[in-house]
């Protein structure tokens, strides 16, 4: 499986179109609460960083860096358990390190994502809501 990864500032390239593609891909798989949260993140008019993963010219996964150090990762269910989410997360961490961030935050929304982030050394941090995990870079 040959994957292509692209990192871009969302605000700089056809923002509405790109964000709509990411949102539509996500809409198919999440419950309404998660969709609303993702929708809010994707509609912000700030310089979010998107890393997309394409397979056979179709976006199958993406990650979003928003509010300076928060990360959101999405992989289409058909392509999960292949290491794609981990690669996206590591690319996000690398980007944040280059930009002098000291930590990154994620918000797991179920047991599967909680386990995923735990395997990559994210820990629940006191002072944050119970849905926020942190990793020092």
Architecture blueprint of SSEs:
Blueprint: E1 4-9, H1 15-27, H2 32-43, E2 49-55, E3 58-66, E4 70-75, H3 84-98, E5 103-106, H4 111-119, E6 123-124, E7 133-136
Antiparallel strand pairs: 1-2, 2-3, 3-4, 5-7, 6-7
Helix pairs in contact: 1-2
Question: How would you describe the overall organization of this protein?
Answer:
The chain is 36% helix and 28% strand. With 137 residues, it is of the alpha+beta class. It is globular and about 40 Å long. The relative contact order is 0.14.
Lateral strand order in the biggest sheet:
1-2-3-4
CATH class placement: Alpha Beta
How many separate domains make up the residues? 1
User: What is the CATH third-level topology name?
Assistant: Aminopeptidase
**Proper CATH architecture:** 3-Layer(aba) Sandwich
Order of helices and strands: EHHEEEHEHEE
Biggest sheet details: 4 strands, antiparallel
Mean pLDDT: 76
Radius of gyration: 14 Å
Give start-end ranges of low-pLDDT stretches: 10-16
Give the terminus-to-terminus CA distance.
29 Å
Tell me the total number of β-strands. 7
Structural class: alpha+beta
Helix content: 25-40%
Number of helices: 4
Strand content: 25-35%
Shape by Cα distribution = globular
CATH superfamily: Gcn5-related N-acetyltransferase (GNAT)
């Amino acid at each position: 499986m040959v994957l292509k990864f692209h990192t871009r500032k969302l605000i700089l390239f056809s923002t509405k179109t790109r964000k709509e593609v990411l949102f539509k891909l996500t809409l198919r798989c999440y419950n309404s609460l998660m969709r609303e949260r993702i929708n809010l993140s994707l509609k912000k008019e700030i310089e979010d960083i998107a890393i997309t993963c394409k397979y056979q010219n179709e976006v199958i996964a993406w990650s979003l860096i928003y509010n300076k150090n928060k990360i959101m990762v999405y992989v289409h269910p058909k392509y999960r358990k292949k290491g794609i989410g981990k690669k996206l997360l590591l690319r996000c961490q690398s980007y944040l390190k280059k930009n002098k961030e000291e930590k990154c935050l994620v918000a797991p929304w179920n047991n599967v994502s909680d386990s995923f982030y735990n395997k990559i050394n994210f820990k629940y941090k006191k002072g944050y809501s119970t849905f926020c995990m942190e990793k020092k870079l």
